[in-house]
Amino acid sequence: MNGVESYQRDGWLHLPAVLDGDQLRLLDDAVERLAASAASGVGLHHHEQTDAGAVLARSEDFVDADPVFDELLRGELVASLLEPLFGEPPVLFKEKINYKHPGGGGFAPHQDAAAYRFVDHHISVMVPLDPATEASGCLWVATGFERGMLPTDGRGRIRSDVAATLAWRPVPLEPGDLLLFDSHTPHSSETNRTERPRRALYLTYNALSAGDHRDAYYADKRAEFARTGGDVDGERVRLSISDDFLGRPVAT
Predict the structure, then answer these.
(1) In terms of residue numbers, what domain contains 158?
(2) Which end of the chain, N or C, is surrounded by fewer C-beta atoms within 10 Å?
(3) CB atoms inside a 10 Å sphere around CB 122
(4) Residue among 136, 194, 219 at smallest CA distance from 170
(5) pLDDT in tens, 55-106
(6) Has residue 210 been placed in a domain?
(7) 177 falls in which pLDDT band (50, 70, 90)?
(8) Residue 62, Cβ density class (10 Å: 0-12 exposed, 13-18 middle, ≥19 buried)
(9) Are strands 178-182 and 12-15 parallel, antiparallel or unpaired?
(10) pTM as predicted
(11) Is residue 1 scored above 70 in pLDDT?
């Protein structure tokens, strides 16, 4: 079975050792520069509270902040992997880095399509910079993407009784691996229980024929957060339109 057939069957595809050591070092340095500039307003950043203090949970909207990001996110490598899955060229929809510092929160079972407005279908590419293990909070994926949108609890999470019926499995990854997954693929993750971060980029695309909606997505998200704030009931950090992140708001 080839990669396209595997993806069409499962809704996700693990590609080992795609990026080499030089590419990873350049990407790692670019991520460190971005994180260091979080306070200056470059990109869109979210923080969470851990037992060790407040930490950076996520960075978004950074493709133009560094040529290293531009080369990966808009370059030929990712496009060549996604075009056979879309059946046409892809266009960047959004990008984010989840830092998942020690004690960083996990995500409840959800489907990304619940939070992605403007286009019905997307494919995301997970690019791990640190080992993603069960202990560090790797992604768990489940069957069911072929059913489209599963019933939710009204907050963007898969309803708990439905999630309990799905066949879940962890997907451990090493730096250099890529994980491609459909926006209807059920997934979740747990708290990072190790003593080092579990950083990963998530690059999300839609088919070119559906249009370029990246600017509209980030304008809409900024407006939504300006209206509703950055936490949910003072109990959880709000990272997206959906209430699926389980991290704690920063103590004030």
Answers:
(1) 3-237
(2) C
(3) 22
(4) 136
(5) 999 999 999 999 999 999 999 999 999 999 999 999 999 999 999 999 999 9
(6) yes
(7) very high
(8) buried
(9) antiparallel
(10) 0.96
(11) no
Does any domain span residue 252? no
pLDDT at 34: 96
- Residues contacting residue 183 through CB under 8 Å, at least 6 positions apart: 111, 112, 113, 116, 121, 122, 123, 124, 204
Beta bridge partners of 54: 49
Q: Under a CB-based contact definition with an 8 Å cutoff, are residues 97 and 34 in contact?
A: yes
Q: For residue 234, what pLDDT is reported?
A: 82
Widest CA span in the chain: 53
**DSSP per residue, 109-136:** EE-GGGT--S-S--EEEEEESS-B-TTT
**How many whole angstroms separate alpha carbon 52 and alpha carbon 63?**
30
Does residue 193 lie within any of the structural domains? yes
Q: What is the pLDDT of residues 86-96, one digit of tens each?
A: 999 999 999 99
Place of tokens 């293990």: 133
Tokens for 109, please give them: 């079972």
Alpha-carbon gap, residue 181 to 175, rounded angstroms:
17
Q: Is residue 147 part of a domain?
A: yes
Instruction: Domain count for the chain, please give it.
Output: 1
Rounded Cα gap, residues 251 and 230, in angstroms: 13
